[in-house]
Structures are given as structure tokens and as C-alpha cells.
Amino acid sequence: MSKKRRVLVVEDEADIRELMLLHLKREQCETAWAEDGESALALIAGQSFDLIVLDWMLPRLSGLEVCKRLKRQVPVLMVTARADAVDIVDGLDAGADDYVTKPFEIPVLLARVRALLRRTERRQSGSNVYRAGGIVLDESSHEVRVDAEKVHLTRSEFKLLHALLSNEGCVLSREKLIELVQGDGIVVVDRAIDTHICGLRKRLGLAAEVIETIRGVGYRVNVDGSS
């Protein structure tokens, strides 16, 4: 990371919280912490953060409710023992950008953090060029290249790839992808998104491995290779 980013860790289990704080500091992040949802919201109201690492099961106010109240103002990485697809979808719908299930490996947590912070940095820089693995998408010229070779995509495939790359590290549900891809004469319904993903992967060849399937939920671009 080019400069220190501010990360808030919201976790009521002290051992887990201290472990996360230690490794985030080693990643050159400035950190703050809270042990319940209400304290977290009070901190967020008075300070600015680039990312919130948020436990779901919190005292006083759940992480899910915290997400809803934030209204997507700050990127959120949800940490939860609730690993069912329906729970993950609920977290994403509430405003979480990605999730890590407990128990988790520290390298996986840090990979998710790095991906979300890269997305924030790219948006703040106003860049129209997105890269992942060997893929380069130039929004201005409407071109996609894989290992410097131009790849021809349909309008739907281009918008789908743009949605995934511009939200690197975020899990996008099928419903969210449909919302992002629809328009300008493009109509996508329900499971048709899976067909579009299949076609996109074929055109991208080996570079398509950065597109990760989240079973029962949707897709994400995962350049760190953690799952």
C-alpha cells in the first residue's frame, strides 16, 4: 500500500481482535478498534476510515445492523462464523463488500483487506484502467487485453467484466451483477448471468482464473488467490 490506510476493527473477542490489529499494523495500516456495534458507530461518526473489519455477532448491536446504518459509506469486510450462502447474501445486501468466515487464516484476512483497499485507492485516483492478473480493461477506449493481446467481448461481457474489476475483492451477488450490467439495451435475467460469466471466461482463457465463483452467492475478482 502506497500510504497508511485507516482500518477500524470491530470485534468483541479480545484475542481475535488483538491478532487482527497486530497483523494490520504490520501491513502499515493505522488502526482503531471497538468491541460492540454502538461503540463502532460512535467512532465512525467522529473519524474517517478507509475500511471496517466487522464481526457479525456483536453485543448491543449486530454487525449486520451496523452495516445497514452505514449505508455503504465505508467499505466493510464482514467477519463471521455464519458461512451459509443465505447468511452471506444477507450480509452483502446489508452493505458488506466482502466476507471472511471464522475460523480464518491471517493471510486470507490480509488478502481481503488489501483487495478492498486497492479498490478504494483506484476509485480515489479516478483511474479508468483496471488490471487483474493478465487482464487490462480500459474503460475510455472500451478495450480489453489479455497479456497484451486484444480480446473482443460482447457489450454484456464487457460490462460484466468492468463490474467485477471495478469492484475487485468484493463479492457481487447475481442480483447485484444484473443491476450493474442492465441498461443501454442490455437485458439480463436471473441465472442468465451464469451463462454470461461462462462466455466471458472462455474469451479470457487462462486469465479467467481471477474470476472466483462463490457458490450459491455470485462472483468476485480474486487476484490474491485466497478463498
Characterization of this structure:
The two termini are 21 Å apart. With 227 residues, this protein is of the alpha/beta class. The longest helix is centred in the middle third of the chain and has 20 residues, at 106-125. The chain has a 5-stranded parallel beta sheet with strand order 2-1-3-4-5, with helices on both faces. It has a 4-stranded antiparallel beta sheet with strand order 6-7-8-9, covered by helices on one side. It has 8 helices and 12 strands. Helix 1 links the parallel strand 1 and strand 2. It folds into 2 domains: 6-124, Rossmann fold (3-Layer(aba) Sandwich); 127-221, Arc Repressor Mutant, subunit A, CATH 1.10.10.10. The radius of gyration is 18 Å and the shape is globular.
Helices and strands, in order, run as: EHEHEHEHEHEEEEHEHHEE
- What ranges have pLDDT less than 50 throughout 5 or more consecutive residues? none
* Alpha plus pi helix count: 8
Count of structural domains: 2
- Give the end-to-end Cα distance, rounded to a whole number of Å: 21 Å
Shape: globular
**Radius of gyration from the CA trace?**
18 Å
Provide the helix percentage: 40-55%
Q: Identify the CATH class of the largest domain.
A: Alpha Beta
Report the β-strand fraction as a percent range. Answer: 15-25%
- CATH topology group of the largest domain: Rossmann fold
